[in-house]
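Sanity check

After download, print the first record. It should look like this:
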Amino acid sequence: QGAQRLAPRAVAGAPVPPSPLLVSADEYAARRRALAERMPDSVGAVVVFGAREPEADYLSFAQSPDFNYLTGFGEPDAALVMVRRAGGADGFDAVLFVQPRDPAREVWTGRRMGVAGVPAATGLAARPAGALRPVLDSLAAALAAGGRMLAVSAAASQGPEALSPDGQVVAALRRAAPGLRVVSASGAVARLRGTKSAAELARIRRAVDVTVRAQRAAMGLVAPGVNEFEVQALIEYTFRRSGADRPSFATIVGSGPNSTTLHYNADDRVMRAGEVVVMDVGASYGGYAADVTRTLPVSGRFTADQRAVYQLVRDAQAAAERVVAAPGARYAAASDSARATVARGLARLGLIEAPDATYDCGPAPAVAPNASPNGPPNASPGAAPARQCPQAGLYFMHGLGHGIGLEVHDPDQGVPGGVVGPGSAFTIEPGVYVRERLLEDVLPDTPRNRRLAARIGPAVRRYANIGVRIEDDYAVTAAGLEWLSRAPREAAEVEAAMRAGRLAAGRPAARDRALVESYRAGW
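Expected structure tokens:
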């Protein structure tokens, strides 16, 4: 996907070396072979559906990640069918079903590759998409008669209460061939996607580089009186101007109270002096995602309280980095180290009673002695003791990070609970969020929690509306851990970058500010 745009250009007839950003047809073929090798003998065929064309033709199209991973084919309404070879031969034969050329339709959608163009571009045999359903009908009947299973990508195996269009196809196959057994291929594909190739890491690095460029640009714009959407616009403009496909997720620019909402993306509030702003952003480049977060002081300098919260988050990130940098490191150990660091810091600030302190977070269900361990618990809320949760979880309630790749939350061999190794690409993103109404809205009303609220209430009010998240992207190669997202992140570096950016760019012009406000007044 995007291969033509990313390909190097020849200059004056000189030969051009292959771009490290290009994923070759041989690599896609190797991925399909690896998937075939993971299929048990009982699986006779694999179907991976590509993403459907949006119903409204003005909406953007993005390819299904599993289909993209196995084919690199970037057009909608396609499917990959892999059929086990007959006669006991090893392996599967693969065919790509694609939309045919249709000049009348291409006026609206753009030129299609068509059946004739697929073999040269992908190395795959091709058939028109209209032949897919008859082929699947015949295949389903043969598999059912032979006692073999059909493996299908995750997009086609949703629950019956909300079947996707592809899920409806699979349901129809089951009805037509009652003995057909269907299993998911998503787990096998996810395990393959969890280890990135050199070409994949090259695209992730480029996506991260673009994202860092956008973070640096935003550091020169953030100031009191600037609206969050202005920062969002500059970030996304920088993405596209730098060659990125699009944002890899909805851009988060959250200031003041919005800094304490994890996935806030309305991006429509005027920043005020004395606040912080969380900018959680990522570019998609060549189909691969970045995810980088920085927290800035709106006024250009952290207050003492903001700096205290910021530093404990940065310390937690550094602790996790040290753990995960060791050969054979387990990501879960990095998470434990980060959480312990956050808990110690919160205790120092008086936001929790002690690093290991707990609170009443709900009634613990009581299970009757004769109850099945796999059945529903026999809850007795009135009699059961209160369930305990770490007090630190009131402020750090999300995971330490996630894999990155074709999706912003991508499979990874080490995240969340495995061993990090060459080919891993992931984030480390601790955070602390002091919500203004934490004590009223989050703590259940119990005698113990009321005593807790009395003790930590002054600190909660002191640090209220300070949300800090610091997120970086990393890759692991044979040489070790690589920090990819080298945007300023130490408190002093962030302040210096904001000063330098403001001097280079200048403050937003008064006439531009008046124009923005005039539009808003009309809303």
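If your output differs, re-run the checksum step. Summary of this record's structure: The chain has 16 helices and 19 strands.
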